[in-house]
Amino acid sequence: MAKIHYPNGKKNQSFASLPDRMKAEEFLGMFKKNSSAAGRGMSLEEDVNETNAFYVSNEIASVHKKPTPVQIVKVDYPNRSAAVIREAYFRQPSTTDYNGIYEGRHLDFEAKETANKTALPLSNFHEHQIKHMGLVCRHKGISFAIIRFTCHNETYLLDAGHIISFWEQADKGGRKSIPYTYIKEYGHLIPLGLHPRLDYLKVIREHY
Prior knowledge:
This protein has 208 residues and is an alpha+beta fold.
């Protein structure tokens, strides 16, 4: 009888003990299907959120995505115990997407994903975010962007100082994007893993 071998050293479980006594061929087919789905990849935001959840659950760091503020315009009260929102809109966030604390240091960052092969357009950022990142840096916090080039299947951590510099140059008529080659040279590649999915704190430990 075929058995499933567990990498954690637990006792093997036969296929006969699976739900509904699943046959070996059926199980292998399900396994291949699940492996294929896992290999398709997640969005950058999903990867970052999953990574942060791992950090929090293992008490490594406390980092969270800030919710987008919502302005409620119209509310109906069909009865005293219920309220129905009829009209609302998303307000522009005043800071970056993520913040938290790691070993006594404040972390503040954006997560940006682009299909552009040669550069990250600065239009991915807003002026108030650039100002906020600069303020964090001046107060000795750690500010950066996690940038994914989907066409290259590469994810980088780029310090806010580089982003701010390009933004200031653009205000003076310079280019409106950060070249991929620049990010590859001055950023830090973050390999994809499992637990955590995107270990950006490894970069923080080594370079900050």
